[in-house]
UniProtKB/TrEMBL annotation:
Protein name, entry field: MYND-type domain-containing protein
InterPro entries membership: SET-MYND_domain_protein (IPR052097), SET_dom_sf (IPR046341), SMYD4_SET (IPR044421), TPR-like_helical_dom_sf (IPR011990), Znf_MYND (IPR002893)
Family matches, as PANTHER family: RE32936P (PTHR46165:SF5), SET AND MYND DOMAIN-CONTAINING PROTEIN 4 (PTHR46165)
Keywords linked to the UniProt accession: Metal-binding, Methyltransferase, S-adenosyl-L-methionine, Transferase, Zinc, Zinc-finger
GO biological process: compound eye photoreceptor development; methylation
Amino acid sequence: MDRNYQKICGARTIQSDKKGFFNKFYLETKQTCGEKWLQNYFGQSKSNEARILSMFNDPEISDTVLGILENVQPVYKQKDALFSAQNRIKAEKCYILSANTNKQENLAQALAFANLAVTRAPAKGVNKHIDGGFSLAMAFRARAAILLAMDEGQLALSDLKLAAYFGLDTQKNVDYYIQLAKAYELMDEMARAEISFKIAEKFAGDNKHTIEACRQEWASKNAEKKKPKLKLIGKGPLLTNGENPDLKGASHLVKLVESKEKGRFIAAQNEVRTGDVILNEKPIAACLLPSFYGGFCCHCLEKLVTPVPCSNCSGLAFCSAQCMVEACESYHRFECQFMDLFIGSGMSILCYIALRIFTQAPNVESALNTSDLLYKNLCAHEDSRQADDYLQRSLMAGFLMRCLQKAQYFGPRKSEGVNPTAIEIKVCTGLLGLLQILQYNAHEIYQTVKSADHIFDGSRIVYIGAGLYNTGAYFNHECWPTVARYFVGKNLILTATKPHHPNEVIAENYGPIFTKMNSKERQRSLRGRYLFSCDCMACQENWPTLQKLDKQVRFWCPSTNCSNVLHFPRDVLKDVRCARCRKNVSLKESVSRLIKIEELYREAAEAMQEQKVYQAIDLFKESIDDFFQIAVLPHKDTLIAQLSLIKCMAAIN
């Protein structure tokens, strides 16, 4: 095994950015303790708790560790009422301009400024010198007006309610109730719209001409009402055959099995057909990459349209008040003031997930139980780790624990010093265990970004975060997976891309894929990143990459109960001899079926080009199922069909 490559791969799972200060912390500590102590003492520790205790108590290292961790302080992007007010004014100017020229362009610009105004506005009463302390309410009100002009009733209604919640005076506020009525009308909630109009009329007194003008304007708009552009957040497709009670998020079609050679893995329990949804799982914990804080909700990972901010920091946002409340009442209250410190440390996304498992838990005991169970049940490769790997992870665990101390996760402390209490040692130990299992069990979370012109042409995969999935972690790797993986928000969806017989392994792909990488490259990557060598069919038979693959096909022997594979005959009209069942068999019917299958592939491809996604999915499912009845991979057209099916499934969710 290439130890240097393994070391590089491991280091990247702790610190993704070497410019961050954590790398300096690690190198300084390693230099202080010396190689002899690292290998002969720390490297001989038999448990995670022993490593943590050594880090904080051993004189060879503890002074350096404690001294550096003493410097941990909150660092985060704070609110700015003036900046918010300035951007609100810019938004209002663009909104006014949109009534006269370049409506869509000016409204889009207005929304961008309004989003900045909302995100940077402090909470009610924090800065009374600007906007009388109501910057946030005024920003939500301004954005609601823009959203109404964009025919986004549901989003506008949410902002109007938030404006009222954060202090907007709605008593006898005629304009507010007119806007409410407009929002309800856009949502086809006419009874509520009428109630809002009547409240506005009551407050207007004799000055009802504005309300009547609004009634006439919206009556004329009803006939040509636009569909809102809001993408409603869904939970993804339903599991085929319902949920397996023994496997959270998995279908009844699959089961967890165990063998000495492969450990625990997922296999088919019943017949699985192409297109069957076998997993729809919420993560144990999932985090957004910091580079996407401005574009996606930090809680549900849906794309942001109208961000709802944290009331304290400006570094991230949520897609709705519900997501904001759920986050701020659980994990974000502990993470909020350290977001920029985390970014500055250069720590990897896996470190965020380890921390999140603790900060989202209802209490410390619950978090410790979760971390202990995960460490017990998921692969950590403890015996294959080197001493400096353990040191790096121990230091990161110590850093995260210190942030929790400063965030009062453990409640008020008697001392501001770093020296951990017994419960803090347990948490630090739990964090160290999580940093090990996450290296081998976390999933990258991605979204498919589609172009404006075509669902598929120009679409691209964008990795936005990572998550840990309890059942998802049990799927083994093959260099050509048998499932499509995609995400709905942060839910992991796995759908079969081929039929499976009972007890057949259902495999994911961990990154190295045969269509793009040769066998030697794949094996090096898997050994360095995951510490195993792959023996899947693509590796055993050394399949060429897709670019080098010819269009040859191998057929199953048509004899009953024969599992031999036969090459395409030179003469279809002549029988071929099967070496296993020793029969002369005809492949004429198999060839005929293959011709029909390839025609279905072409029809499905045409449906994709015409953006008839559901039609394409049905054609691919039927034809791929048929292919596996008569032939085996690799077959170039079938591989392309499976890749196309994956694109289609991601496109509809």
